[in-house]
């Protein structure tokens, strides 16, 4: 039996807003059916059924008043995967096991969608999320990176602090929150002071990324979608005295301006995305007062809503085009 594959599955969570709505609208305008899946609602509200036999397999999903089977799904936008919200009624000793089992079922559901176009493929995202790998690839394709040390050795940390003459920042390898507004539990990129090194022995509990603090003229968020680039710039002089992370700046001083990257840098970004086989990525750069562009990181599911909102960039349209393209520019990663 022929099944019309016109559904675009939008994977997110119930606290997501703006970007998910814009992509859903853009998908609808192109004649496809957006289907929003809030992953935190599984298994309490979302139902998934998977049937297997020697003659084949079939996966069905029901959420709210809608249902689908995986044969209907043409494309998948990988926005966010969230931990299950199991409520307070389930005893604490069962929470971890039920959450683990639910995520395992979701993994199987994603596998059933392997014939769809993904922006982006989960394996490629996982590979690209490793910030140490990012730094290596960035340097190999010609991008400038900060001097960096990742260590759980207190003495190495003190020595690096001396090498960079006290101009050092600390950051995490993995994000602790997602979305246009950070959660209450979030570690921003922070300047390290000499008195902070008095607690360096605590590194034995968790290694930390330390980088040379780069002087800022501008901070840039460059959103890459299937060969298209949308760049926003922030004047760092408006907030750099109070924070090393623009996400901690007040709304009054965080004013995005459109920006055009030089062609040589764009070629490096193309090469970087090819190496990881990604269609989408949100790059962070610093432009120094001397005019040098320094790569900080890429988030393969990074935030872009503020650029579409403030600069009217058609990022949602570009994502919808990539989802519904017959041949998206997705390459094998190495």
UniProtKB/TrEMBL annotation:
<dbReference type="Pfam" id="PF21068">
    <property type="entry name" value="ATPgraspMvdD"/>
</dbReference>
<protein>
    <recommendedName>
        <fullName>MvdD-like pre-ATP grasp domain-containing protein</fullName>
    </recommendedName>
</protein>
<dbReference type="GO" id="GO:0018169">
    <property type="term" value="F:ribosomal S6-glutamic acid ligase activity"/>
</dbReference>
<dbReference type="GO" id="GO:0009432">
    <property type="term" value="P:SOS response"/>
</dbReference>
<dbReference type="InterPro" id="IPR026446">
    <property type="entry name" value="ATP_grasp_MvdC"/>
</dbReference>
<dbReference type="GO" id="GO:0005737">
    <property type="term" value="C:cytoplasm"/>
</dbReference>
<dbReference type="InterPro" id="IPR048936">
    <property type="entry name" value="MvdD-like_ATPgrasp"/>
</dbReference>
<feature type="domain" description="MvdD-like pre-ATP grasp">
    <location>
        <begin position="8"/>
        <end position="125"/>
    </location>
</feature>
């Amino acid at each position: 039996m022929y099944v019309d594959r016109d559904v675009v599955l939008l994977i997110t969570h119930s606290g997501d807003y703006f970007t998910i709505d814009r992509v859903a609208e853009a998908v609808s305008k192109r004649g496809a059916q957006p289907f929003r899946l809030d992953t935190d609602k599984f298994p309490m509200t979302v139902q998934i059924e998977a049937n297997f036999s020697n003659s084949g397999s079939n996966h069905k999903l029901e959420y709210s008043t809608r249902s689908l089977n995986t044969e209907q799904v043409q494309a998948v936008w990988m926005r966010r995967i969230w931990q299950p919200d199991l409520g307070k009624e389930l005893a604490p000793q069962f929470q971890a096991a039920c959450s683990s089992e639910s995520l395992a079922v979701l993994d199987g559901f994603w596998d059933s969608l392997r014939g769809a176009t993904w922006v982006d493929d989960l394996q490629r995202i996982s590979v690209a999320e490793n910030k140490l790998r990012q730094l290596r690839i960035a340097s190999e394709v010609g991008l400038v990176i900060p001097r960096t040390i990742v260590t759980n050795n207190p003495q190495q940390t003190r020595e690096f602090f001396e090498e960079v003459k006290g101009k050092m920042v600390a950051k995490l390898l993995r994000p602790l929150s997602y979305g246009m507004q950070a959660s209450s539990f979030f570690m921003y990129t922070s300047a390290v002071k000499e008195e902070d090194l008095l607690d360096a022995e605590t590194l034995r509990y968790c290694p930390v990324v330390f980088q040379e603090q780069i002087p800022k003229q501008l901070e840039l968020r460059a959103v890459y979608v299937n060969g298209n680039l949308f760049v926003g710039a922030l004047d760092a002089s408006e907030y750099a005295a109070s924070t090393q992370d623009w996400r901690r700046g007040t709304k009054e001083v965080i004013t995005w301006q459109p920006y055009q990257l030089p062609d040589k840098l764009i070629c490096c970004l193309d090469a970087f995305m090819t190496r990881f086989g990604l269609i989408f990525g949100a790059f962070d750069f610093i432009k120094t007062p001397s005019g040098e562009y320094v790569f900080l990181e890429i988030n393969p599911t990074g935030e872009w809503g503020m650029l579409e909102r403030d600069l009217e960039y058609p990022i949602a349209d570009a994502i919808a085009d990539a989802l519904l393209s017959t041949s998206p520019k997705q390459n094998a990663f190495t």
